[in-house]
Design brief:
about 325 residues; alpha/beta; Rossmann fold; Alpha-Beta Plaits; 4-stranded antiparallel β-sheet; 13 helices; 13 strands; about 35% helix
């Protein structure tokens, strides 16, 4: 089921077990430890004292608006940038300066996929495999794993956005890394392609591979991640399991019915005094902290047409911490 988090056992995932290796054990061993991380570009503090840890086998998300510092943080963890100050440990080693031994244990899928021109999907992944001294058979297995076998002979510039992202992830996994970094892997994809990619990411993590994800999609993080760090202006504002962060918000329940079912005056009488009632001409929405009482009152009035009930989500937590203003 799409909304169910899976930590798949070998017998549940079948051939996938053979393709991406035996499960790593999830325990207290840290895959990543970051303390007091700083990175500035002139007057801009891209990362400003970030501190967090990622356990081995965890699916960890870093969330934040544009310019929050997510990509810079990932690039430091990947050994692509040097931090100004702070402590960073990735799989027990400092990522800077880059170490070949560490690079063999991590896989990186960048925000923008860049492939060699005029190569087919199969040629592309075989080339990546050869950089790690891995034979073409493994490359073909990964092509099958990400559902790209039928596109094996298609040149990369002819792939759709979702296909290109799947190929990019296959390239990041071809050497069977312990730790995988994914920077906005579903950016620009249509809803069907996003959800298909979610299944792949769950399967990868289900075998115990540690996954670190940055995303703008809050529903994606809520479904996939064991824990998330919400980041803004280079700082970690909140950290924990999505459900825990949502419960801590204590946000009201929003009950929506068809406009005209009850008057706004009657609806306001049902709502909590300090909460709002809104009517956009299609739906009337009552915010309340006593949803059972409001639902019972609406049922007595036979005013249940178009009923929907929504509790707080990770998006509500995100907006409460980072604000609602639009950012370029």
């Amino acid at each position: 089921m799409l909304g169910t988090k899976r930590k798949g056992r070998p017998e549940e995932t079948g051939a996938l077990f053979d393709l991406i290796g035996p499960p790593r054990m999830i325990g207290m061993t840290l895959a990543i430890a970051v303390a007091g991380l700083h990175k500035s570009y002139g007057e801009v503090h891209a990362v400003d004292g970030a501190t967090f840890e990622v356990q081995q086998g965890e699916f960890f998300g870093i969330l934040g608006p544009n310019g929050a510092g997510k990509t810079t943080t990932l690039e430091i963890l990947e050994g692509l940038r040097e931090a100004d100050s702070g402590e960073v440990s990735v799989l027990g080693s400092s990522p800077w300066p880059r170490k070949p031994e560490l690079m063999k244990r991590i896989g990186v899928q960048l925000q923008a996929s860049s492939f060699f021109e005029r190569l087919t999907a199969r040629e592309q992944i075989r080339l990546f495999a050869s950089l790690y001294g891995i034979g073409p058979a493994r490359a073909d297995e990964l092509l099958d794993l990400v559902g790209m076998t039928e596109k094996a002979h298609t040149r990369t510039e002819k792939l759709s956005g979702g296909q290109a992202q799947r190929l990019s992830i296959a390239c990041a996994l071809v050497h069977d890394p312990d730790l995988v970094f994914l920077d906005e892997p579903t950016s620009g994809l249509d809803p069907q392609a996003r959800r298909n990619l979610w299944d792949l990411l769950r399967d990868i993590n289900g075998q115990g591979h540690t996954v670190v994800l940055t995303t703008h999609h809050l529903d994606e993080a809520e479904i996939l991640c064991d824990r998330v760090a919400i980041m803004d202006h280079g700082k970690i504002l909140a950290l924990g399991p999505p459900a825990t962060l949502v419960r801590g918000l204590e946000a009201p329940t929003r009950i929506s019915i068809e406009s005209g079912s009850v008057s706004e005056v009657d609806a306001q009488a049902l709502a909590d005094p300090d909460l709002e009632v809104t009517d956009d001409g299609i739906s009337l929405t009552i915010a309340t902290r006593t949803p059972a009482k409001v639902l019972a009152a609406l049922a007595e009035r036979n005013a249940m047409r178009g009923l929907s009930v929504r509790g707080a989500t990770l998006e509500d937590v995100f907006l409460s911490l980072t604000g609602r203003e639009f950012r370029e």
